[in-house]
Each structure stands twice: as structure tokens, then as C-alpha cells.
């Protein structure tokens, strides 16, 4: 649903709200564009708010305020502002604004993404940090990711000379990677939409669509209790459908574990069954591993392949580095630390194309002062990672795609350098960063090592459309189609 449509609906439903809230705004907020009655700044925004927020920051500065319906939103657009929010005031600004569509009973409170930073959240983070995403665990499962990457190569070789929607192939590969990391089994076969756990795949796709849709109740929370557009109900149905698929798998694994004792498979489910988490917490964590891990990485890799298509010199440099370091052997994850140009390429892709352009919205737990402005309690805070990655005060020639800028730079995306925050920072940083960067690097290297590719119908790469589709993830619109050709 377009923002303009949402605003018009809100005018009809909530016209009286202006009389209630017009004189009740908090004082000392950062500056911002003047809001209109009732709808605030909604009608001043379009379908690419991350880009429009960046333009507003040029007028209003590091922090600016928007009125989104009845909601006060503060947007941070520079590394210094991000440092204040994600580091200096991280605890006070660590609350999470939960989208109305995802306020499903028993889900939010057991979610590592949406719950507050309470004891349950800390326990979930601890399991991720000390069990799932340890260096030992990641290294022990490298062969799984390498095998799935090679299955992707074999599938694309069968498609040589044909048009391929590359994001679908990447998404399927990532879902199968996670299926094997979590359950030690594939979810579906590449190129066969009727294979595997069809229900799981369909529910995952629908959840992602719902996550990218607009709910008027996010701007006028008084509407939230009614779920007028049925989005929360649909999210609940998708979640239950996913849990039903996993419920059968988990029941089978619990029985098998009981029968064999402590000896079992080296996968995430085995770890989670020993972690002390209850079934609801395991379900929510698995849902977020699948949902966040596949969609964000698939979008990032599609952007990476797009940039390689537009920049053949960059592709040639990665290919030359692979030949020098790996030779004619199949690239493995253990090679990645010895491939500095590939690592620089991944950083440059994440700088220009952060998977979640506005991160996920935070919420002020208490009133505090940030850069001499007042951030009131319950205020929403957005950090524009997209704008920060393109800030001309930080980056030389910021719109140019140049991995070389990272070759002699210590800047990284692990949450300590606020010039580059594609995965967030502070206590809310994505816990799966070590794993995500491994398979992004592996899949890019595998594609470059094994294929050349052209655009359909002889299109010149210089004419490639680089438009973005805004949502929870920053997707390429239209999707990238390539024509693969195996390297000799």
C-alpha cells in the first residue's frame, strides 16, 4: 500500500486527532519540515524514504524530526549522530518500535529482533553469541555452505545461455544453506517450485511481503487494536504455518536425540535443544534466522552481482586475486582471509547497498539529550545507514563504486566504525554478522570463479537500471536477470 494511500485513509478515519494532538508536541526536538494537520509529514514522503531522509538531512542537519501521523520520529543521518544513538545513549535508546503487523501474541516477547532488552532477550543473544555464531561453529559448518554453493554452480551451468533471475537462485541457495545448518536437510530443489517444504517457502515469502507493506496503524496507533487491514492476522497465520512445519521436524529430532543420547548432528537444532530455550523461543529464533538471514543476504548478493556487471574492471580484479591465491582449485571459506580485494568489494557493496537502509526503528525508553536536542520518551528513532554510507563528509566521491577505498582502511562493519553500519551497532547489532559475511563472500567468489555473464538482449551494462525498492530490505527494482556462461 502506497504511503499516499495510507495517508488519505488516515485522514478519513482520524480527522479528529489533529484537534487532540496539535498542541501536545514535545519541546526541544531536532528541527524538521513543518507537519501538516492530521497526517503530519506523511504526504511529503514518497516510496523511497531513505533517499528523501538523506535530502532532508542536508537541510536540517545530523538529526531531524518528522511527524508521521501522530507519531514523533527522529532520524539520524551522519556517523556522529549514529555514534550518539548506537553507542553513547545505546541503553536508553535500545527500545524497539514493533510494527503493528508483527504484534502477534507470544511472538514479540520471544523474539530476539522485536523484544525489549530483558532477561529473555539476553538469554537468546547469549545462545547466538556463545553457541550458534561462534568461530568454532561457523568453521565446523563451512563444508555445508561450500557444498550448497557448488550445487548453485551446477544449477547455473544447466542454465547456460538462458536468462536467469539471479536473486531467486541466490535466495534458494541461502534457504538450503540455512536448512542444512539448522535441520541438516534441504528445503527445496533449485528450479523446482513444487519440491521440498512448499508451505515453508510460501510462508517465508509472504512474511517478507508483509514486512515490506505499510500499515496505517503504525502512524495512527489508535487503529492498531482493530487490525483493520488484517495484516496482523495474516502474519499470525504465516507464523503458525511455519511453526507447524518446524514442529514436526523438532518433534522428530527430539525423539531421535532421546534415543541416541548426546551423540548427534552438528547443526543449530541440536544446539538449541540443549540450550534450555522453550519451544516458542526456539520457533521464534528459527523464524528470524531463516527470514533475516536469507532475504537480506540475497538482496545484498544481488546488488553485488549488479555492481560486478556494471564494473568489469572490478570483476577482473577479483578474478585475478582468486587465480593468484586459489589457482584452479574450488574456492573455500578458508581462502577468504587471504582475499583482501574480495573483502574490500563486500564492504563497498554494503556501504552503497545496506540490506536494511534505515536499520530497524528504535524507541526511547526515557527522555534524553542527543546532540543538544531532546529525544522524548517513547519517541521512535531511525538511523539512516544508507545516507551514512553516502555521506560526502566521510567518503571521497561517495557515489562511485570503488572497493579500493577499503584496501588500506581499518573501517569495518562489525559495529565499532559508525561510518559503516549495514548491520547496525550497539546491543541491537545483528548477531549473525560473522555468518552472513562468510556466505556473501563465498557466493560472490564462487560465481566469479566459475562464470562470466551478460545481460539479456545484448543490453549494455552502462544502461543497467539501479533503482531501489524500499522495504525492510533494500531490493533491486527491477530484479537483475543475467545470461551465465561457464568459464573455460
TrEMBL record:
Its cofactor is heme. It comes from the Eukaryota. GO terms for molecular function: heme binding; iron ion binding; monooxygenase activity; oxidoreductase activity, acting on paired donors, with incorporation or reduction of molecular oxygen. CDD domains: CYP76-like. SUPFAM superfamilies: Cytochrome P450. Heme binds at residue 430. InterPro entries: Cyt_P450, Cyt_P450_CS, Cyt_P450_E_grp-I, Cyt_P450_sf. One of its GO terms (biological process) is isoquinoline alkaloid biosynthetic process. Keywords: Heme, Iron, Metal-binding, Monooxygenase, Oxidoreductase. The keyword Heme applies. Belongs to the cytochrome P450 family. This is Cytochrome P450. It comes from Macleaya cordata.
